[in-house]
User: Fold this.
Amino acid sequence: MTAEASRYLLESVIVLSGLAGILAALLVVAEAFIADYGECIITINGQKELRVRGGDTLLNSLAANKIFVPSACGGRGTCAYCKVKVLEGGGPTLPVEEPYLTGKERQEGVRLSCQVKVRRNISIEIPEDLFNIRQYRARVERIRDLTYDIKEVRLALIEPGTIRFRAGQYIQLRTPPYGNVREPVYRAYSISSPSQETDAIELVIRLVPNGICTTWVFNYLEAGQEVLFSGPFGNFYLRDTAAEMIFVAGGSGFAPIKSILLSAPEAVDRRGGRFFFGARSVRDLFYLELMRDYASAHPRFEFIPALSEPHPDEPWHGETGLVTEVMARRLADASNKEFYLCGSPGMIQACVRLLRSMGASDEVIFFDSFA
Amino acid sequence: MNPPHVSPLAVFFGAIFTENILLALYLGMCSYLAISRDVRPAVGLGAAVTLVLAISSGINNLLYWRILNPFGLEHLQFISFMLVIAAVVQCLEMIIERYTPRLHLALGIYLPLITVNCAILGVCLFMVIRRYDLVQSVAYGAGGGIGWWLAIVALAGIRQRLQTSRIPRGLQGPGIALIASGIMALAFMGLTGIIRTR
Assistant:
């Protein structure tokens, strides 16, 4: 390369990068002046007031004040977990949000908090439960096998030392980087221990082939180790009515149902309850003894395990068939009943279809789908 | 050899009427067709384009004649013009978002897309070819913008009236908008040559 050519190249680079640098600096300055919305007040549920610097999203502004609205996509507007009701000051609904909002939600002012920017005083409504969401540090107290691919993990809380949750809710367990996993990953697991127990929680974790978090739990996690989780989340919990409770679960979907049963024995005695548990064969069943004891202590409760593919050489005297087939046989109709479903999306869909065909309205069907 | 000096006023009016950037040169068609369904957002976008054009043609004029040309770096004109235009649009977006959120919502993606509106780069390049000085360039930019504004508002007005007219199914939407633009362009052609702009 001749000296002239290299000088030419150098000048081009200098001029271009200088220009880009100056423009970028100007934009930063402009942003500091123009996008400065001053101090804004977020009023939550008409009571609590937060003073925040305007300009950021509602989701981030709340998180900065330790109110954790659930969000899985990191504020990109794709998971729609971060819905909150904006009563005032949220501006018009953006096109990004529209696909995730039903007509009713739009009327009520429900928005995705990751898309709403705080630019003036804003008034919102969030479930009281969100105030309880914290990040917890805990020590693994015990891990035991429930079946060949399901483990029960017991976590004793360290900081904060106690947790308040509604039976049926879930937490998000943090998987630290290990092996080829470079970034921490959060996965949702339902709490299986009763809500009266506040200094420890139990989880039921099923091994998902190649699952980042379950592989870590099965191969790396040991008693005595410290872990982090956040929660409690979710609106899968017992409603206070007089209807009979019908629980349906598959696999690790047992967890929230166990928590509900152990937390509200008086509701079981008063309302009556049946628990359909779907599994493939005898080796997939667990907590049988617990359920037997529970049923003998609560005469109005019945535990109905159903095996879809029982092994011929295994002794099995219970129900066989898909859990939906067994439900169709055992339930005469859907009147005066409430349904709590927890399991794989496929199982939930099949159950919801069956229950609708039996005449159950969507208001009495509650579910927690393990995607 | 310098061309005879043309009054900035002549450049300004020429850019609006006799050499309308949109109707005579067909630049900036996409947002013109997309945002001309309604008069209000069309007015807003036209104002935004005009502002971006006036500012960026001035800055780009200085940039070209004070930096690029003296250093023999004319080959950088496309990329550096684009950088300037993008920065101006960013600034403008911040201002619109801050002060008129409704207009911001109505313009949506077309606001940042002003960056790649060919009318704007077109004006900046013509201004270099015609060797306009700073005042002429700003006049040309502002005039070009107002011309574009005029055209999009006129089309939006026409399209609003067309909503109640009976249009053959195959021509509805962009089809009839292109025909209307063509007729407008014919009308503007009648003004050609009245003002000398170079």
